[in-house]
Design goal:
Blueprint (H helix, E strand, L loop, with lengths): L2 H8 L11 H11 L6 E5 L5 H9 L4 E6 L2 H14 L5 E5 L11 E7 L8 H11 E14 L5 H7 L5 H10 L2 E8 L2 H21 L6 H19 L3 E10 L3
Parallel strand pairs: 1-2, 1-4, 2-3, 4-5
Antiparallel strand pairs: 5-7, 6-7
Helix pairs in contact: 8-9
The structure holds S-adenosylmethionine.
Keywords: Methyltransferase, Transferase
Protein name: SAM-dependent methyltransferase
Pfam family, one: Methyltransf_31
Length: about 240
């Protein structure tokens, strides 16, 4: 089974493809899109869960999403049609770092997709290029809760502790106006949903030629999570404004 399909199967039970629950998402969006007529961009939107929630609750918001996964965007398109918001959503199938728009956006989101830009600060630089003066950026990224194992670093990449992460964001010209640190329950739920959805599909489709492989992917992932990074992995989502324009 290809990686895209595994990725899609893996979060059927967790539509936000990042470790945040529905209430956290609602609160963060409320702090990011509050006027109700904003133009919103999501870089690395996946199935556009953040944008679809925003469009569903704000009838005058318009949105654009960018992702390099055709399957995720197809799912986003279908969901948008089901919700009746497809007229207000434009989806771009391309590398988020190459996205360009003639008109700036009131809010730029990028959650769990900083690798597309080479890290958190380059993601903020990209968002800055797309926002109006006074606009808001909602960005979510990992940090180390404690010293990571070598295996965790190798698997997940290089991050800082939370305080250093914040210091760097502020030194880069941004002021946090809201934030959310994913709780242990949100982090664990995300992993249980990921491995559980894959395992459930595999057990429900024992005759499928991909069944054994999908079960093995779930098992390997669960083992890596518990042995390598559960204690050290943290996730923070920030609502930011430029400190000065
Ligand atoms: C962890 S998912 C997060 C999706 C979404 N932001 C959310 O929170 O539900 C990361 C997304 O980034 C996308 N992505 C990764 N690299 C990308 C790139 N270079 N350009 C565009 N999208 C990218 C993936 O396809 C995936 O949909």
């Amino acid at each position: 089974m290809d990686r895209e399909m595994i990725s899609r199967l893996s979060h059927v039970d967790h539509p936000i493809n990042s470790p945040l629950d529905d209430e956290s998402v609602r609160r963060l969006l409320h702090r990011t899109v509050d006027r109700g007529d904003e133009r919103v961009l999501d870089l690395g939107c996946g199935e556009a869960a953040w944008l679809l929630r925003t469009l569903a609750t704000h009838p005058d918001v318009t949105a654009e999403g960018v992702d390099n996964s055709a399957q995720a965007l197809a799912k986003a398109r279908k969901e948008a049609a089901d919700l009746g918001v497809e007229q207000r959503l434009v989806l771009h199938h391309q590398d988020a770092s190459e996205f360009a728009s003639r008109q700036p956006f009131d809010a730029v989101l990028s959650v769990g997709a900083t690798h597309a830009f080479g890290g958190l600060l380059p993601t903020l630089d990209a968002a800055h290029r797309h926002i109006v003066p006074g606009g808001r950026v909602l960005v979510g990224d990992a940090y180390w809760e404690c010293e990571p194992t070598a295996a965790a670093r190798e698997m997940l990449g290089e991050y800082e502790d939370l305080a250093t992460t914040m210091d760097r964001v502020v030194a880069h010209g941004w002021t946090p106006v809201f934030g959310h640190i994913s709780t242990r329950q949100e982090l664990d739920d995300f992993e249980w949903c990921y491995t559980g959805s894959l395992a459930t599909w595999a057990l429900d489709h024992p005759e499928d030629p991909d069944s054994a492989e999908v079960l093995a992917v779930a098992s390997t992932h669960r083992s890596q999570w518990l042995h390598s990074y559960r204690d050290s992995f943290g996730f923070v989502t920030l609502v930011l404004r430029r400190t000065s324009e």
